[in-house]
Write a structure and sequence with these properties.
By secondary structure, the chain is mainly α. The chain is built from 15 helices and 2 strands.
């Protein structure tokens, strides 16, 4: 007699949300920040974004062909998202070969070398950015003022001004400029309002949870308020350190990556705290004014250990 039950391997929970849908939702959520970056810095930002995405897709297709995998997987949105995030972490005046080299590394080494989507240990876009920072630091730290300002090139972002102790220059940067992106920085990180709008969309649609981004941001805010003040403990400008640099971009769009972050709620909270402390430490004590990328990459490496000790036990499981 035929078995009326069709039993398959786990997982048995079905959901209409697919990997492709999630990827394209994040791309949509990132669109306002990209549009703001192009508006603020000019058309070269669009060239950087287009080159980064194109290089990521071409590299993905070539590696999939070499690995004899289905090349149609390039359309699942993951390569496009990697190229987009990498471009958002690059200065707007960079030559076109910078995003191309970064995207090649991000896809070929940061993603496909580990086995492709779902197997990579580190966030590919951040791996690409770290590669660019190590290889061509001058290009990655040459900043451009918003196109409506008189000087085309500036020497420092708000965090770099703080790092160099230029408090007088910092006083000339109001919070509204930080919110609107009226200051030097990477293409996709300067406009806080655009990033928050995209983050709200992802939270409302439940593509991400609050655990990692909120804990990450609160940790950076608290440690900066406690230790980064010029008049002693608990005098730091927490809002400045939250709105400056790549914290919002990293917290909402890269630290929340499904593949390279913890699975359980407790693990996500630990991950967020770790990212926040590492970001503060790198910003405060290293020679580099920004620490978001390296903080997330370090915590990516710790994710398997975090999951091991925080992931809920299986239903009905008993210790042998």
């Amino acid at each position: 007699m035929n078995n009326p039950l069709n039993v398959s391997i786990a997982p048995h929970i079905k959901d209409p949300i697919s990997t492709r849908k999630i990827m394209w939702a994040v791309i949509l959520a990132l669109a306002p920040a990209g549009a703001a970056g192009v508006f603020i810095f000019g058309l070269n930002s669009l060239v950087v974004i287009a080159a980064s995405i194109a290089a990521a897709m071409i590299t993905e297709a070539l590696v999939l062909a070499v690995r004899k995998k289905d090349i149609k997987a390039v359309y699942d949105g993951s390569a496009i998202l990697t190229g987009l995030l990498l471009a958002y972490n690059i200065p707007p005046g960079s030559p076109v070969w910078i995003p191309i080299a970064g995207s090649f590394f991000a896809i070929a080494i940061g993603k496909q070398a580990f086995g492709g989507l779902g197997h990579n240990i580190f966030n590919p876009a951040l791996a690409g950015r770290a590669f660019l920072m190590i290889s061509w630091p001058v290009y990655m730290t040459t900043w451009q003022n918003p196109r409506w300002k008189v000087d085309a090139i500036t020497q420092a972002t708000p965090l770099a001004l703080y790092k160099h102790g230029d408090l007088e220059a910092l006083r000339r940067i109001p919070y509204m400029d930080l919110l609107l992106g009226n200051h030097p920085g990477c293409i996709g990180e300067v406009c806080a309002i655009a990033l928050l709008a995209g983050a709200a969309f992802l939270l409302i649609k439940k593509y991400i949870t609050w655990h990692v981004p909120f804990i990450y941001i609160l940790t950076v805010a608290f440690t900066s308020w406690m230790f980064n003040g010029s008049k002693g403990l608990f005098t730091g400008d927490a809002l400045f350190f939250v709105l400056s640099g790549g914290l919002l971009l990293g917290a909402f769009f890269m630290a929340t990556d499904y593949v390279t972050g913890p699975l359980g709620a407790r693990g996500k909270i630990i991950f967020g705290v770790g990212c926040g402390i590492l970001t503060f430490v790198i910003r405060r004590f290293s020679g580099y004014p920004e620490g978001v990328s390296y903080a997330i990459l370090i915590m990516n490496a710790l994710t398997p250990t975090i999951d091991r000790y925080t992931f809920p036990k299986w239903f009905g499981w008993r210790k042998a």
